[in-house]
Description:
The complex is a heterodimer. Chain A is α+β, with helices and mostly antiparallel strands. Chain A is 31% helix and 21% strand. Chain A is built from five helices and six strands. Chain A has helices at residues 2-10, 17-24, 28-40, 78-85, 111-122; strands at residues 61-69, 90-95, 102-108, 128-135, 141-142, 145-146. The model of chain A has no long low-confidence stretch (mean pLDDT 93). In chain B, the strands form three sheets. In chain B, strands 2-8-7-6-5-3-4 form a seven-stranded mixed beta sheet, with helices on both faces. Chain B has a three-stranded antiparallel beta sheet with strand order 9-12-11. In chain B, helix 3 crosses helix 10 (269-281), helix 5 crosses helix 9 and helix 11 (283-307) packs parallel to helix 13 (368-386). The mean pLDDT of chain B is 97. At the A-B interface, helix 2 of A face helix 2 and helix 11 of B.
Amino acid sequence: MREEILSFIEKNSRVDLKEIAVCLGMTEIDVANELAAMESEGIICGYHTLIDWDKVTDERIHALIEVRVTPQRGKGFDEIAERIYKYPEVQSTYLISGGYDLLVFMEGKTLKEISSFVSQKLSTLESVISTTTHFVLRKYKEQGTVLGRKNEDERMIMTP
Amino acid sequence: MRNPLSQTIVNIKPSGIRKFFDIASERKDTISLGVGEPDFDTPWHIRDEGIYSLEKGRTFYTSNSGLIELRTEICNYYSRRFGVTYDPKKETIITVGGSEAIDIAFRAMLDPGDEVIIPQPSYVSYEPCAILAGAKPVIIELKNEDDFRLTAKELEEAITDRTKILVLPFPNNPTGAIMEKEDLEKIAKICIEKDIFVLSDEIYAELTYKGDHVTVASIPGMRERTIVINGFSKAYAMTGWRLGYAAGPEEIITQMTKIHQFAIMCAPTTSQYAAVEALRNGDDDVLTMKKSYNQRRNFLMNAFREMGLPCFEPFGAFYVFPDIREFNMTSEEFAFALLDAQNLAVVPGTAFGDSGEGFLRISYAYSLEKLKIAMDRLAEFIGGLRN
């Protein structure tokens, strides 16, 4: 039941309780209870809006930063990850297997803003060994949604 | 100059959808719930295989019966999903859509004077194809009160000494009706008793919302007298690829292959390669689409309940078939008035046989957003009629 609700709202959280209940064959009360429970259990962590900022004049720059760190005794990577993700300009932080340890997605208004974040804040952290910054040139697809393409129904209007 | 035309073809009525299509497609901002094909794109990994086959230069003919890899996958699929085994070499043929399979099955099996029992409302091509094969269509009018299932009694009453084939169009377009195992067992018993063959059109087999589809061929004694028709259009959203198939007794498939060989040569090669991928790795796609259809089906049934529009609950395909008899209009009148007043296009039930009178076919191969707007319009229209 939970998975059904989650996959129903994953792509569109702007549906009302009634619609979820009707489409999934549940009662509104059950859906409301499950949603509330999943919110408090931290399963549902937010209801965000997917925005293609390139279409808005507001300038935004995104970067992916590979960070190599020295894990700390007893705490592994968690503490250093926390120190990094607490910065509001950091959008996501993942622990990664392979050539580096943490992958940090960040957003800034200018190249300068990002580079000064990396050089002054990130690199100066004690356990950070090195960073590699990649700037995003264009976003094609995000969260499973292709950006900037409108899906027109090209089927004939009526077929048997 | 002599009349250039065959009287047989001239006498066949054009598809009932045509007239409506012409009018609806000229209008702007029409919302249509009239389409009989999935709204999903073919899953990318399947399209990719088609593209890859073109890149590799696989642009040749295949054998008349179709790629053996594909026929093997089809046989694996039928045995895995529906418990019937066929020999890929002798008991299957790949066709240009399910429609071609219907046509050549009739032509391979029917002689002038033979009768074909066709339950209606049903897909538009059985009747003309039977006529083109020289046979006589005998129509059974399925009823709303039976949830548009075929009953043993109706079948018995329609059988004569000349009856050769019974068409079983389930899951059904346009009603969405299904036939469950118990329903089929009763029909099978009669077919065996009366020595009648069955053409089972299972193109919507993957789209059932109350247990899995049961093929009549899986009922003891039926495999040897059933031609199963299926294809990739509905399950894998591959309508434009034009790919279907038939499976059945070698004797019949051999003659079907003969017609296919002379009339068609072989089904499109690109589509066949893509279809192999569909059968090998497409199960999850089918499930995802089916889940989505079921949500929309629930949505529509609820919308009808709220507007007080009677509609039996259909458990198959992607159609609902609401009952509009309370408005004292023919299906066509209703559909035209709805188009006129609300710019909403649906298909009159009569496009699928006279017994569709008093009903509309509404397709839910549309996004929920679209269905929502459409149901608001329908509710408003009905409200207006009732006042």
